[in-house]
Amino acid sequence: MDFIAQDSTLLAATSALALVGLIFCTSKLASFVKVLLDVYVLKGISLKKFGAGQGAWAVVTGATDGIGKEFAKQLAKNKFNVLLVSRTASKLETAANEIASEYGVETKIFAMDFTKGDVQDFTQLGQVMSSLDVGVLVNNVGTNHDIPTPFADEDDKVINDIIEVNVKGAMKMTKLVVPQMREKRRGLILNLGSFAGLVATPYLSVYSAGKAFLSTWSQAVGTELKADGIMVEHVNTYFVVSAMSKIRKPSLLIPLAKPYVASVLSKIGLPCGADIPCSSTPYHTHGIVNWLINNVFNKTFWVNQNDVIQKDIRKRALRKREREAAAARKEN
Ligand SMILES: NC(=O)c1ccc[n+]([C@@H]2O[C@H](COP(=O)([O-])OP(=O)(O)OC[C@H]3O[C@@H](n4cnc5c(N)ncnc54)[C@H](OP(=O)(O)O)[C@@H]3O)[C@@H](O)[C@H]2O)c1
C-alpha cells in the first residue's frame, strides 16, 4: 500500500516537473520565434506617423559621419527635412548640401562640440529647433575610450567627455525637443545604445556604464512620455562599421551603417531582440545575439567574455601604438 502511495507521489512530482519544464521551454521557444518574426518578417511603425512627407524635421546629432550621417540621409530619403548637429562646420556643410541635392529636402546645420556642454550652444540650438516642426530626434552623437583602458588609468578628460556627450548630451537634446512634441502629441526620439550597456564591458567601463544609463533612462522617460504621444526608443547596437568601432570590413554580425540604419527605421516599435520596455535591437543578427545574451548562460559569463575580448583588443592597440611610435621615431 505504502509503495503504491510513494509511486503515485513520485509520478505526480515527475509530472509537475515535466509540466514546468514544458512551460519553460515553450515560453523560451515562443520568445525566440517572436524575435525571428520581428527581425525578419514584421514591419515597424510608419515614419509618416512622425511627420514624414508633411514638412516635419528630423534632428540628428553626430550627423557628419558613420551611423549619424546615415540617419540624416535615410530620414531625408523618407522626406523629412533634416537639421544636422555635429562638431565640424565644414563637414556639416558638405553633408547638408549632399543631402539637400540628393533628396530634395530642406537642411539646416548647427555646429557645436558636445564635450563642452555649453549652455549657450544648447540655448541657441533650442531656438533653432523651436522654429521647426520637429518630428524625430536621433540622439546619436557618441564618444568612446580611445582604446580599452583600465578605469584607474583612464584620462579624466576622456571620462568627462563620455559623460558630457553620451549621457548629458542626450538628456539636454531631449529636454529641448519634448515641449513641442508634447504640444503636437507626436514625436519619435531614438537613443543610440550599445551592447556595452547591455553587458558591462571592462576596460570600456565609462562608455559601458553611460550606455547602461541611456538604456534605463530611455525606459523610464519613454514610459512617462507615452501618454503624450511621444515614442522613445533605445536602439541597442552591436558593432557597426565606423570610425568609432575602428572596424572597416562588414560581416554577418557587423553591418555597414546603411543596412544598419535601414533596419532601425523599418522596425520602429518592434523590440526585435530586446526584452525591456522602449527598446529595440533591430538589426537581424544583433537581435538574435541580444536574445542569446538574455537567455543563454548568465550575465557573469557574458561580462567575462567581454573581459577577454577587451584585454585582447587592448593588447593589439598597444602594440599598434608602439609600432606607430617606432615608425615616427625612424622618420625624425
Ligand atoms: N559603431 C559602432 O560599432 C557602435 C556600436 C554601438 C553603438 N554605437 C553608437 O552609435 C553612435 C554613433 O557612432 P558611430 O560609430 O557612427 O560614430 P562615428 O563614426 O565616430 O561618428 C561620430 C559622429 O559624432 C560627431 N561627434 C563626435 N564627437 C562629437 C562632439 N564632441 N561634439 C559634436 N559632435 C561630435 C562626429 O563629428 P566629427 O565628424 O566632427 O568628428 C561624427 O559626426 C554613438 O552613440 C555610438 O556610441 C556605435
TrEMBL record:
Subcellular locations according to the entry: Endoplasmic reticulum membrane
MF-aspect GO terms: ketoreductase activity; very-long-chain 3-oxoacyl-CoA reductase activity
Pathway as given in its UniProt record: Lipid metabolism; fatty acid biosynthesis
Protein topology in the membrane: Single-pass membrane protein
Active site, per annotation: 207 (proton acceptor)
Top-rank taxon, per record: Eukaryota
A Gene Ontology term for the protein's cellular component: endoplasmic reticulum membrane
Binding sites annotated in the UniProt record for substrate: 194
Catalyzed reactions: a very-long-chain (3R)-3-hydroxyacyl-CoA + NADP(+) = a very-long-chain 3-oxoacyl-CoA + NADPH + H(+)
Keywords: Endoplasmic reticulum, Fatty acid biosynthesis, Fatty acid metabolism, Lipid biosynthesis, Lipid metabolism, Membrane, NADP, Oxidoreductase, Transmembrane, Transmembrane helix
Pfam families for the chain: adh_short (PF00106)
EC number: 1.1.1.330
Membrane-spanning ranges: none
Function: Component of the microsomal membrane bound fatty acid elongation system, which produces the 26-carbon very long-chain fatty acids (VLCFA) from palmitate. Catalyzes the reduction of the 3-ketoacyl-CoA intermediate that is formed in each cycle of fatty acid elongation. VLCFAs serve as precursors for ceramide and sphingolipids.
Membership in a protein family: Belongs to the short-chain dehydrogenases/reductases (SDR) family.
Name of the featured protein: Very-long-chain 3-oxoacyl-CoA reductase
Phylogenetic classification of the source organism: Eukaryota, Fungi, Fungi incertae sedis, Mucoromycota, Mucoromycotina
